[in-house]
Each structure stands twice: as structure tokens, then as C-alpha cells.
């Protein structure tokens, strides 16, 4: 009995495939992604790739779909099945797995169906930290756009059972080191049925039954002869690209081919002036892409900088990719972040409290009104400090709340104090500050010491060049408005120790670049605070980088005493970054190295090839907590998050991994040498999205914690069974789960040693 | 495309904090000056192509932190250096006196094969500053340092102003010339950039790994 024309034989079914037509979870369309052979089929190119919503199927058909989905041995038999059927002999009389043909395109119900002949390529996105659900985007050869199909593995019975098997054998990650997911079977099924060509240049792209012209289009010189002019773009998108805004899903096609053309061409050049790059690009890439790329200020800057071609390419690729993701993000909103975490912890809910799970997305910042609501009328905290920290960890603070909240986060005020107690603390800190300040300001002997004079020069140099783009630190001469309060009047010290200017800063010089002359009152106070800290922590003194740490704190308080103590509190945990032998920095970079190996072994291997596993490019980011890499406001938010020690006092290392993993494809794809990696990482400055990276860092942390837990349980089990082999978790890594601040103090300064 | 060879020359710039290392490099490579370059933390480099005796070279100039203790980490970039620039500030005597420790620091970290005749160059920056601010009897002190000090810093010396772009170009051209000599001494093959570019970008589809890789 043969299959009728109106019918089709299901070869492969993936249940719990979803469309996400809007950002809201409730609009998701559940259905089946299937491969089926119509009765009229002559070759594998006729096989239909279909998405059929559950709601469109009758009860009987649902049963057929589900039974095919659950057939675990299906994959092995697929090609056999195909051969048998071609002979049309073996299964006569058996009308197996036959359903009515899926509808071709029903707009109201989201169903679609397309013969493989008309599929140009598939873009596969594995579930990853960026994408909780794996998905596939089907690009037809025509110009129509098909919706993205998401694999909800947590609901798919077959995938769950397979994941379970993999977990039991303690191999949750497949051969390529990534988690097993539903899309893998789909790809395997497809490749059993038809030729699939995975692109080396963009490993997430699979060409479906590519004809030679397609391959030439993606091949460098040699494969099919040099590419001809004007070919780019046309073969991939089926028609000349229109001068429309960069938009999905076309961007993926254009990107795949355009990137390729530029890559091969630029790679053969060693001269890299802007105009030259432009010429190359002009020649080989669709105009609309060229325009978009070259108008980016970042790209212009890049090509101006005579950079090596690969650094340029890596940036470009990262940028285009990000643009594509930015647009797609419409389909993945906060809901998805919740779902991600829920699913990640699916079988291990006991690891996280429900509250932790629901809190894992970014919230709106805590403003002053909300902050005040945390306290009763005596000024006693009505929540636990952890609740407050949780709130700040996930939302940060609004500018107006910072002045109130930072003293708590930085240990100036105790969490269990009340308003009256804080007033007393404030008073005693005021007088204590004056005591420390007097040690240099009121001590002529001190000020003649060689060491002290050195430190003063260093401080003044750094203060002068600190954050001068920030309003309060701008030069008075370039700042408009009255000079009213900007006299160089120093802090009025409580017991008549009032100085109009400090004795060692002569006024007479009119040179506007004189180190000793600090016109801006705020810069002047930075200097006073740092000179006083030099007395407060005599062993450490002043080290470059401290100005970076003080500057945002001062900007929030704009008060010398409060800024000093908040800074001193911050320095408690940061002192280890500055100690003379640099052991604190070395230690952190070592732990980061271990964490990277544990979490992203592939990326680590690539960095090893680049001789970059010392992770030196993280030095600046770790030393001053990403102060130089992010925008001013972002730095404030980031530090608040770190200050909470909500998951770990070493959360800045997880954040480093978030940055590194977000650049993974650019690094792996384009960077091959120590200097290239360093340059690329140094110039991420200002291009990173804080919000995304924070979510990413949290997911990395949760995954890390879960991995440690899995391994621990595995070890316990083995121990109970008397097996000797255990997977060891290095104590360095285990320490990352601790919330207690790590404090390392500087040793006493040996006689005659300078502050260098 | 011509298969022209380009030599990559690696130069390390050292000196006390605030002597103007970043400014010198920015002036030379990007023809810019600002008073407000932040204190360098970690390390970074700029690249500039030059023609020296009809040979095109790519000068990779490494900017470093002046804070001594930060040198103890991240010495990776010292490796394979072809020339080292020691900087001081003509208004800061201490920075002048520290030149020889910077030289020692470099030799220890870089582990060069010919410490005796490795090319160093000395740059005294900020000559635009008013005469009265300069180190008193600078020339005499310089002579002392270059001739008499233990080991002697008998190296080419340039006085520059990164601010007013005085002598910066000349100084770095000499840097390039000296680096080129050193590079040729060490064998020219290892830094052939042209080959590097071809090898480094993987532009071949993996034939043996076609189809689905799941």
C-alpha cells in the first residue's frame, strides 16, 4: 500500500518545538518539527521539513507524531528506511507513520512546510549561556522568512530521557564539550537524509544539499577558482540585497557570505589604511553591508589605527554578530531568562531556593524611595542584609540612592545600626579623619621626607589625569558658570586646622599645566584624600590605580570625610591587588586561569595556542575592577554588584569569564597570537553591554556551582561503592563559592624602599 | 599582490611613572597629544609602519606601566624585544636616576641573548617646559649617568617634547634603525609577517569534516 498524494510518511519528529512569535511566553506556539516524505516523492530533495502546531492535529495524528518522536532507535534506521522505501517492496501492506501532508504556510496558525530542495541553509544555535533554548533558523532559497524554531528540551520526553542517560554516565557534555540538546538529533536526522555542509567560517551554519555554486561562494581561492565579482550576495540571498536596514534573518545570509569575502581578501593584504580596507570591501561585498559597516565609528577608528587585519576582522565579526543578536533579542525577553535558570536546574531544584531562581534576571535599580522603605522610622533595617544585597545584586542602585547605600556596602555603617548610631559613627569618623590628615598636613617633618614627596608627586600626577571627562572633574577653565564654590579652600577641620591652600602647593605659577596647581576643588579633594590614605595605610601608601578606585566614590559623596572612609572600606578588599610583590594579583589570575579551564576548556585551549593563558589582558580589568573598560554609570552599577558579595566575594572573576566567553567566537576564529589577543581585549573598552554580561556572569556562576555539586555527588556515590577514583575539585575553585571577603595586607615597607 | 616582506620590530618603552611614555607613543603614532592620558595599567601597544633604508618595517611599540611593582607580572611582552627605550622627564631628577634600574629590569625580564650590546636608547621628555623647571645642571648629570655609572648607559640620547612634537619622529626612527639591526642579528625569519598572515587565518573548509558534526 503506497502513500497517497495528500499524505506523507513521517521520518523524523521532534516534539515540543516552539515558535516564539512575541516576547511573551504565553504566546509561544507548541508544535512538531518534522521530516516527512510525501507520497509523490522521487528523491530526498522532496522530503518536507515542516513545523506543525499541536493545535492543528487531530487526536489520532497527535498519537502518530508522538510515537515517531519517541522512537529512540529511529536515527540508526533512517537511511535504511529510506532505501527500503525506495525499493518499495519490504513494507507493503504496512501504512506506517502516515499522516496528512502538513500545510504549506498557514499564517494564522504558524504552520509551515518546505521541501528540502528549497532550503538554502540552516542556522543552528545551540543552547548556551546566551540562549537558553537551542533553536534553528531555516533560510529558504526564496525570499520568504520562516520563524525561528526553538527546542524546549525540558518538555521533550525523548531529549529528557537521553539527557538523563548522559548524566548518569556522567557525560552531560557531548564530544564537543557542549550539553546534549534536542537539535542534535534533528541535525543527525537531516544529515542522514541529505547532504549537509557545515561552514568552517561560521560553524553554526549548515548548507543544505549545496550545489557547487554555493560552495564556490563560500570557498576561498582554489576550491572552485577565484570568486567572480558581483557574485557575493546574489547566490546567498537569491536576489541583490536591498538597501534596507540590517535586519534578520537576511543578515545571517549576508553576513555569512560578506564576511567571507572580506576575510579572504583582507587577509592577503598587509597594508591596512582605511581607504584600502574600504576599497577591498567595496569590491566584494554588497553595498548595503559595506555602508553599514563603514559608518560605524568603531570600525572607522579601527581602520584608522593601522591595526593588524585579524584584530580588525575579529572586531568586525563580533560587531555584526552582536547586531544580529540585538535584533533577535526581541524574541528572548526576561521570561526566557527565568526559564533558562529553571531549566538549567531542572532536576536539581533543591540546589537553589525558588526565590533565588526567580531573582536571577536583572531588575530595575533601587531608588531612594525604595531604599528608605528598607528602614523603619528609627533607621533600623527591616529586612535582612542579605535581602537588601540580593536586591542590589540584581538591580543595582539609582544615582539618588547611592549616597545612602554605599556606606553600608563599603562597611562604613553597620547593617544593624540605627540612625542615631550612624550619626555618632559619622562624627567619630570625622575627627578620626582629621587625625590622619594632620599627620601630613600639620607635620613639616613628614613633608620633607623623600618618600612622602615622591608619593605626593605621584598622587598629583594621577589626580590631574583622572576622569577629566566627568563633569565635576573638568577643568574650571573649560567649565562654564561661576567659580563660586571652587575656591581651593581645604576641608574645615574641626579644631581650627583650616588651610586656605596646602603649604606645599604654590599659587604663583600661571601655567595651566602645573602639577602642583589644582584648580578644580574636586580634584583637590581627591589629592587630600589620597595623601591622607597614605598616612592611614602607611605600609601600602599610594599606588597607581587607586585614583581610579576613589574617583567614582568621591563623585557620589562629594564629601571629603565620607569619601575617605568609603574608599578605605573599598581598599580593604582591594589591598591585595596592590601589594608590592603582586602576589594578590598573581593569585587572582591563577584562579581565573583554573576557572577558565574548568568552565570553558575549548576556549582555554585556544588561548594556550596564542600563548595567552597567563591572561595578562585581564590585568587592568582585575586591578581596578573594570573601571577603564566600562562607561561611568556602568562602573558604579558593576561595583555595587561586586560589593554585595551576593554569590561570591570573587564574583569579579566570574564577570571576567563572562567577558571572555562573550568574545569566544571572535577569539577562536580570528586571534592567534599573544599580541593580537591583548590588543583585542584592550580595545573592548566602551563596547561591552553591562546588562548582558551581568546576566551571563550569573549564569556562569550558577553553572559552576551546579558542576561542583554534580561532581561532589558523583564522588560521594563512588566512595559509597568503594571506588577509588574521584574527580577532584581544586580548593582554589571551591574557594570561589565563599562569600567572605579575601583580605591580604601589605607588609611593612622595608627601609629605603620607595613606593614604586 | 606583491609578496613583499615586512619585518615586525618589537620595542619596549620603559621609565618612571608620568615621564610621558604614553604621550611619546601617541605623538609618534597618532600625532596626538593630551595632558589627560590616564596612568597606564597593564600594557598595550601601538603599531606604525616605517621605511628604513628602503625596507618597510612595522614598529610594534609597547607601552608599559611606570609603577614598578606592576612590572613583575605580565613579562610576556618583553620576549623577543628588538630595542628598549628608556625614558626620563627632564624636570624630574629621580626619573633620570632610575634609568639604570629600568635597564636592569628589562635585561632580567627579557632574557635577551646579547645583554652586552642589546640596543637601548634614552629619551628625555618634556623639553617644552620652562628652563627654570628643568633638572639643574642636567648635561653634567647626564654625562655622569651615561659614562660613569656602573655598567654605563652609553646609549644614543634624544631630548624630546611629546607635547610640541619636537624630536619625537627622529628618536623613533633611530629606535627603528637600531631594532632592525638587532632583528637581523637574531635571524630575520621568525617575524615574517607576510607568512604569518597566510597561515593564521584558517580559510579552508575542512574537507574531512563535512556535513553534520554532531
TrEMBL record, chain A:
InterPro entries in UniProt: Rab-GAP-TBC_dom, Rab-GAP_TBC_sf
Keywords in alphabetical order: GTPase activation, Membrane, Transmembrane, Transmembrane helix
The keyword Transmembrane helix is annotated on this UniProt entry: yes
PROSITE patterns: TBC_RABGAP
Keyword hit for Electron transport: no
A Pfam family of this chain: RabGAP-TBC
GO molecular function: GTPase activator activity
Domain Rab-GAP TBC: 396-646
Superkingdom of the organism of origin: Eukaryota
Matches recorded under SMART domains: TBC (SM00164)
TM helices/strands, residue ranges: 104-123
Gene3D superfamilies noted in UniProt: putative rabgap domain of human tbc1 domain family member 14 like domains, Ypt/Rab-GAP domain of gyp1p, domain 3
Protein name (record): Rab-GAP TBC domain-containing protein
From TrEMBL, chain B:
GO cellular component annotations of the record: fungal-type vacuole membrane; late endosome
Keyword Metal-binding recorded: no
Molecular function GO terms recorded: GTP binding; GTPase activity
Pfam families: Ras
Coiled coil: none
InterPro entries: P-loop_NTPase, Small_GTP-bd, Small_GTPase
GO biological process: regulation of vacuole fusion, non-autophagic
Keyword field: GTP-binding, Lipoprotein, Methylation, Nucleotide-binding, Prenylation
Membership in a protein family: Belongs to the small GTPase superfamily. Rab family.
PANTHER family: RAB FAMILY, RAS-RELATED PROTEIN RAB-7A
Protein name in UniProt: GTP-binding protein YPT7
Organism, as annotated: Australozyma saopauloensis
Amino acid at each position: 500500500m503506497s502513500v497517497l498524494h495528500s499524505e506523507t510518511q513521517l521520518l523524523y519528529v521532534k516534539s515540543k518545538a516552539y515558535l516564539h512569535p512575541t516576547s511573551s511566553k504565553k504566546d509561544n506556539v507548541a508544535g512538531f518539527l518534522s521530516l516527512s516524505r510525501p507520497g509523490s516523492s522521487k528523491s530526498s530533495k522532496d522530503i518536507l521539513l515542516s513545523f506543525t502546531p499541536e493545535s492543528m492535529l487531530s487526536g489520532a495524528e497527535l498519537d502518530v507524531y508522538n510515537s515517531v518522536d519517541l522512537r529512540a532507535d529511529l536515527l540508526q534506521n533512517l537511511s535504511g528506511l529510506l532505501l527500503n522505501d525506495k525499493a518499495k517492496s519490504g513494507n507493503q501492506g504496512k501504512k506506517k507513520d502516515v499522516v496528512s501532508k502538513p500545510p504549506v504556510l498557514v499564517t494564522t496558525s504558524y504552520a509551515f512546510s518546505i521541501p528540502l530542495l528549497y532550503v538554502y541553509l540552516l542556522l543552528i544555535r545551540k543552547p548556551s549561556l546566551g540562549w537558553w533554548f537551542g533553536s534553528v533558523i531555516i533560510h529558504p532559497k526564496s525570499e520568504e522568512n520562516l520563524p525561528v524554531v526553538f527546542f524546549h528540551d525540558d518538555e521533550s520526553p525523548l531529549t529528557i530521557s537521553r539527557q538523563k542517560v548522559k548524566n548518569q554516565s556522567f557525560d552531560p557534555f557531548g564530544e564537543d564539550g557542549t550539553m546534549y540538546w534536542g537539535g542534535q538529533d534533528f541535525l543527525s536526522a537531516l544529515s542522514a537524509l541529505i547532504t549537509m555542509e557545515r561552514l568552517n567560517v561560521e560553524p553554526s551554519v549548515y548548507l543544505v544539499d549545496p550545489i557547487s555554486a554555493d560552495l564556490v561562494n563560500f570557498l576561498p581561492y582554489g576550491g572552485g577558482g577565484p570568486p567572480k565579482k558581483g557574485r557575493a550576495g546574489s547566490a546567498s540571498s537569491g536576489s541583490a540585497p536591498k538597501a534596507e536596514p540590517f535586519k534578520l534573518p537576511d543578515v545571517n545570509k549576508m553576513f555569512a557570505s560578506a564576511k567571507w569575502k572580506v576575510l579572504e581578501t583582507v587577509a592577503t593584504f598587509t597594508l591596512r589604511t582605511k581607504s584600502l580596507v574600504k576599497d577591498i570591501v567595496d569590491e566584494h561585498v554588497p553595498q548595503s553591508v559595506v555602508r553599514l559597516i563603514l559608518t560605524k565609528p568603531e570600525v572607522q577608528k579601527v581602520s584608522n589605527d593601522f591595526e593588524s587585519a585579524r584584530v580588525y576582522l575579529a572586531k568586525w565579526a563580533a560587531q555584526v554578530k552582536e547586531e544580529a543578536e540585538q535584533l533577535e533579542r526581541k524574541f528572548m525577553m526576561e521570561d526566557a531568562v527565568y526559564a533558562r535558570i529553571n531549566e538549567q536546574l531542572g532536576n536539581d531544584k533543591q540546589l537553589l531556593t525558588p526565590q533565588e531562581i526567580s531573582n536571577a534576571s536583572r531588575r530595575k535599580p533601587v531608588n531612594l524611595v525604595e531604599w528608605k522603605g528598607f528602614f523603619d522610622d528609627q533607621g533600623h533595617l527591616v529586612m535582612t542584609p542579605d535581602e537588601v544585597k540580593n536586591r542590589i545584586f540584581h538591580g543595582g542602585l539609582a544615582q539618588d540612592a547611592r549616597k545612602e547605600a554605599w556606606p553600608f556596602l563599603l562597611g562604613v555603617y553597620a547593617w544593624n545600626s540605627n540612625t542615631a548610631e550612624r550619626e555618632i559613627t559619622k562624627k567619630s569618623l570625622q575627627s578620626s579623619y582629621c587625625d590622619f590628615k594632620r599627620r601630613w598636613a600639620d607635620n613639616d617633618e613628614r613633608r620633607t621626607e623623600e618618600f612622602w614627596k615622591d608619593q605626593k608627586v605621584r598622587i598629583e600626577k594621577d589626580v590631574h589625569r583622572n576622569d577629566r571627562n566627568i563633569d565635576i572633574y573638568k577643568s574650571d577653565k573649560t567649565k562654564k558658570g561661576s567659580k563660586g564654590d571652587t575656591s581651593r579652600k581645604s576641608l574645615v577641620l574641626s579644631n581650627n586646622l583650616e588651610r586656605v591652600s596646602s603649604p606645599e602647593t604654590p599659587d604663583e605659577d600661571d601655567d595651566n599645566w602645573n602639577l602642583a596647581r589644582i584648580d578644580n576643588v574636586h580634584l583637590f579633594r581627591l589629592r587630600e584624600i589620597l595623601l591622607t590614605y597614605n598616612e592611614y595605610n602607611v605600609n601600602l601608601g599610594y599606588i597607581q590605580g587607586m585614583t581610579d578606585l576613589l574617583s567614582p566614590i568621591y563623585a557620589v559623596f562629594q564629601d571629603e570625610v565620607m569619601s575617605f572612609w568609603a574608599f578605605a572600606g573599598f581598599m580593604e578588599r582591594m589591598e591585595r591587588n596592590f601589594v608590592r610583590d603582586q602576589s594578590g594579583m598573581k593569585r587572582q589570575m591563577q584562579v581565573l586561569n583554573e576557572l577558565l579551564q574548568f568552565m570553558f576548556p575549548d576556549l582555554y585551549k585556544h588561548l594556550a595556542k596564542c600563548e595567552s593563558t597567563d591572561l595578562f589582558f585581564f590585568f587592568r580589568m582585575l586591578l581596578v575592577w573594570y573601571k577603564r573598560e566600562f562607561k561611568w554609570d556602568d562602573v558604579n552599577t558593576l561595583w555595587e554588584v561586586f560589593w554585595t558579595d551576593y554569590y561570591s566575594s570573587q564574583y569579579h572573576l566570574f564577570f571576567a569569564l563572562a567577558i571572555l566567553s562573550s568574545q569566544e567566537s571572535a577569539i577562536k576564529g580570528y586571534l592567534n597570537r599573544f599580541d593580537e589577543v591583548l590588543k583585542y581585549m584592550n580595545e573592548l573598552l566602551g563596547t561591552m553591554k553591562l546588562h548582558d554580561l551581568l546576566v551571563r556572569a550569573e549564569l556562569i556562576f550558577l553553572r559552576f556551582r551546579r558542576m561542583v555539586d554534580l561532581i561532589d555527588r558523583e564522588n560521594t556515590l563512588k566512595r559509597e561503592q568503594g571506588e577509588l577514583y574521584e574527580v577532584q575539585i581544586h580548593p582554589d575553585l571551591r574557594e570561589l563559592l565563599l562569600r567572605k571577603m579575601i583580605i591580604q595586607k601589605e607588609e611593612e615597607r622595608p627601609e629605603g624602599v620607595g613606593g614604586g | 599582490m606583491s609578496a613583499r616582506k615586512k619585518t615586525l620590530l618589537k620595542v619596549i618603552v620603559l621609565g618612571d611613572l608620568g615621564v610621558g611614555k604614553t604621550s611619546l607613543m601617541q605623538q609618534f603614532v597618532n600625532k596626538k597629544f593630551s595632558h589627560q592620558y590616564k596612568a597606564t595599567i597593564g600594557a598595550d601597544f601601538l603599531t606604525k609602519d616605517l621605511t628604513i633604508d628602503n625596507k618597510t618595517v612595522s614598529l610594534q611599540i609597547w607601552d608599559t606601566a611606570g609603577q614598578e611593582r606592576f612590572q613583575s607580572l605580565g613579562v610576556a611582552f618583553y620576549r623577543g624585544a628588538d630595542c628598549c627605550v628608556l625614558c626620563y622627564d627632564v624636570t624630574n631628577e629621580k626619573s633620570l636616576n632610575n634609568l639604570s634600574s629600568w635597564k636592569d629590569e628589562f635585561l632580567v625580564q627579557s632574557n635577551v641573548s646579547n645583554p652586552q650590546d642589546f640596543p637601548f636608547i634614552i629619551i628625555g621628555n618634556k623639553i617644552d617646559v620652562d628652563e627654570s623647571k628643568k633638572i639643574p645642571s642636567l648635561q653634567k648629570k647626564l654625562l655622569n649617568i651615561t659614562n660613569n655609572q656602573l655598567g654605563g648607559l652609553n646609549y644614543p640620547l634624544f631630548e624630546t617634547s611629546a607635547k610640541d612634537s619636537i624630536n619625537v619622529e627622529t628618536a623613533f626612527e633611530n629606535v627603528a634603525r637600531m631594532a632592525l639591526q638587532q632583528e637581523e642579528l637574531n635571524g630575520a625569519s621568525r617575524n615574517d609577517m607576510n607568512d604569518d598572515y597566510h597561515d593564521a587565518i584558517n580559510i579552508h573548509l575542512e574537507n574531512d569534516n563535512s556535513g553534520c558534526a554532531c
